[in-house]
Amino acid sequence: MKIIIEGAGQVGSHLAKMLSNEGGDITVIDDNEARLQQLVGTADVVTIFGDPSSITVLKDAGCAKADLFIAVNPFTTQTVNVVSALLAKKLGTKRVIARVEDEAYLLPENKLIFKDLGIDMLFYPEKIASDEIMDLLKHTASTDSMDFARGKLQLLVFRLDDDSPILDMNVAEFTTAMETASAQAQLRIIAIARKGETIIPKFDTKFNYNDHLYIIAKREGVPTIMKFLGKDNIEVDSVMILGGSEIAEMVAGQLARQQLDSVKIIEIDKQRSRELSERLPSEVMVANGDVRNSDFLVEEGIRDYDALVAVTGNDETNILACVVAKKFGVSRVIAQVENLEYVRLAEDMGVDAVINKKLITAGRIFKFTLSDKVRFVRYMSGTDAEVLEYTAAPDSKVTKGALKDIAFPRNAIIGGVIRGSEAFIAVGDTRIEPYDRVAVFALPETVKEVDKFFK
């Protein structure tokens, strides 16, 4: 597959590395030579220096024969991304995607306008991140979560603390305990993330301290698994947000509409603080100050908040602020961490949940490199694996027998199935039927092979 990426910023560079690892023919366009040189040292890509909205540059990049064009430049106005995507489509690229910075562009009626013009998808990384944070403030017992079919099936990630009741238990013993609780048909452990490694568990796999368990469950099974793991959802009535970024502004706006007891943003820049005060609803308090100063945070009442969201734009500040907040008794802390090498560090230091714009955006875009049977792709923090939802095509390989008999890729697992209005957990005897919606957890090297099973 020939893919052209316009923009070698954080998201563009991450996509280039990820897609080149998948064996794609990747070309990256940018008008900054330093960014391109940095990318060449880490990814197997062709780079082109030039104006991303230049027809000559786009022709030189091979738009006439490209399968996918991704306009993801964060250093210019969104107009450049939209124009370059439209030009790429007119020059012959099969599908085009553009990054935007205006939430209004994502309204259903406006998305239709761009669809008619030829842009296949618009995305706004900061909006995606803010929606993820809102979801994490609802699912407070887990470090990450994902819903299928409006929550009929849920993928939840739980970290095992030093007092977890299942430490040193293995999967077989866990399964027996769930059967005793009449809950086995409602949930399944599909993966364990341990010290940077993702494990597809076997019956003799033991649970260790600080493991992250990836569990797929029916909605009615969630209370049982939470009780069994010793987890409780926290009622979040007050939220402190550190940093006045776009993400912070969007989260604060959504929280204000929920009429919480208290929502406060702390921003170090005075001018940005004034802007936020003017633009956000009156329910949102804005304070000007340095979030690295723990005395200042105490003065602002950090001990009185149920949750803290750190989105300052500096990974180290976000992680350390969350650690401090935990020491002050804040129940739920969420950090924006863009350096992938820091994600595990943040989790090991006690950060409840981590948001990474590159990962959540990459999943949305990676979908376009697979067959039209994949509904969406999601990367979850703490693992390099991918969560995919497929619709099974008639006569596809996945429908040819029970799961235990079809030689499904060994580094992938089907966790659950949605059939009409019914949702159920997949086991060895499960048979996938045409048009079933299927939740799959797969390691990166297996995704292309998985894709073939659903065509």
Return the structural class: alpha/beta
CATH H-level superfamily title of the largest domain: NAD(P)-binding Rossmann-like Domain
Query: Quaternary state, please?
Result: single chain
- Beta fraction: 25-35%
User: Alpha-carbon distance between the termini?
Assistant: 17 Å
CATH architecture of the largest domain: 3-Layer(aba) Sandwich
Brief account:
This protein is an alpha/beta fold and 455 residues long. 33% of the residues lie in helices and 25% in strands. It folds into 4 domains: 2-123, Rossmann fold; 141-229, Regulator of K+ conductance, C-terminal domain (Alpha-Beta Plaits, 2-Layer Sandwich), CATH 3.30.70; 235-355, 3-Layer(aba) Sandwich (Rossmann fold); 385-454, Regulator of K+ conductance, C-terminal domain (Alpha-Beta Plaits, 2-Layer Sandwich), CATH 3.30.70.
Structure, described:
The protein is built from 15 helices and 22 strands. It is α/β, with parallel strands linked by helices and about 450 residues long. It has four domains: about 120 residues, NAD(P)-binding Rossmann-like Domain (Rossmann fold), CATH 3.40.50; about 90 residues, Alpha-Beta Plaits; about 120 residues, NAD(P)-binding Rossmann-like Domain (Rossmann fold, 3-Layer(aba) Sandwich), CATH 3.40.50; about 70 residues, Regulator of K+ conductance, C-terminal domain (Alpha-Beta Plaits, 2-Layer Sandwich), CATH 3.30.70. β18 and β19 form a beta hairpin. α1 packs across α14. It starts with a strand and ends with a helix. The mean pLDDT is about 90.
